[in-house]
Amino acid sequence: MVRYHYALVDDLISREEFDRRIEAKIEACGNLTDDVTAALMVVRDLDRSHVPIKGLRGRSSLFCFYAKVLACSEVKEFDRPDGNKGLVARLTVADETGQTDLVFWDEQAAAIRESFEIGEVLEVIGRHGKSLKEILPLNLRKTHVEINCGMTPKEHKQPERKDFDLLIISLQPAKSFTRRDGTSGEMISGIVGDTAGTARLLCWDAAMLTGCTPGTAVTAAGALEKEGDFGGREIVIDENTVLTPAEQRPDIPHILLGEVKPDQTVTVSGNLVQVQPPRPFTRRDGTPSWVRNVRISDGTATLPLVIWDDEASRPLLPGEKVIIYHVPARVGRTGETELSLGRGSCLLIVPDGPGEPVTIDGTIIDTPEGKVIDDGVQSFLVEGPYPHGAEIILQGVVSKKRLFVTGNRQSELSVETLRANLNELLQNLG
After folding, report:
1. Which of 80, 98, 209, 345 is positioned for an S-S bond with 341, CB 3.0–4.6 A?
2. What pTM, to 2 d.p., does this model score?
3. Phi/psi of residue 37, each to 5°?
């Protein structure tokens, strides 16, 4: 049992040090406590003690929490892909902050009704299942902790098919998947928005989105709407959905930064007032990634924004205006409400004002600050699939030090220009 408690702090101390601290706790208590209680004391000393159920939305690998049993499901039998039978059952548990499901499989599922009673309070050590709305328990024990939650189990509503006018905000590359019947397909995820706000998009037939790019408005007839596995809305497009061009682009509501509360998924806009450089780090699975800390302000408040993964290495300038779609808010380490921008969110850099229309005939150059177009006199940051060294003509709007591209074409160098460039190169070579 102690090994599960150690998993809560395995990124902080070694197992040997953990065992040493347990022995020290037992000795300090005059040998009147057991290993489990001492382990909990060590975990608490390392600030990794019990979290409220609403804190289970975080992405830690393991959680420890107290919860009261609200309901016990029937044991359901299902067929595994290998043809064998399986069993699954759920305990709905809650505290004062929310509720979640504990999922049990096979032998544990079969014994669930004899093992637990409604109203009992459990101490749970577990990890996420297939979604953030369920926990796979690794260790359970009954406790005498009191929880007065006054809740009833939530009904698991089946998603309904509706018609939506959607703006496509972002799309991820298509991914292959295997259906239950063994056939393969391609799916696309992304972010969409409508007059009700933003939602995660799941399209189980990538061909349906052919020709659709960020900024495209579509009508999705017969799409499914449900609560997403990671919180917030989720809109599913499948073979029963019909996509057509929308008559008008929907307006997506924004929230002021001063109104943002923890545990919300919001769309906000503002100006970057502090921009720290990206920092490399290594994930628990050993893969490298990036993280970046900035601050965003809209006049009503200034909030910290944590940017993860590839977005963290994107060129950003202090003072630039941004719109951030579908970003979760949480309580940061300092107790301040912060925004956490990962793969489920989208950051757009937009002109701060009308800007100046320009046409620039120049060269694409990769610099430490980012990709720029340089015409020999001036240079501007640009975003797009422009390779280093490409000679290109870009039309767009200049805002601060960035060119927002509206059109492009290959630069056509005249014989005179080529001859002048060659003469200049020869002179530089002496």
Report:
1. 345
2. 0.68
3. -60, -40
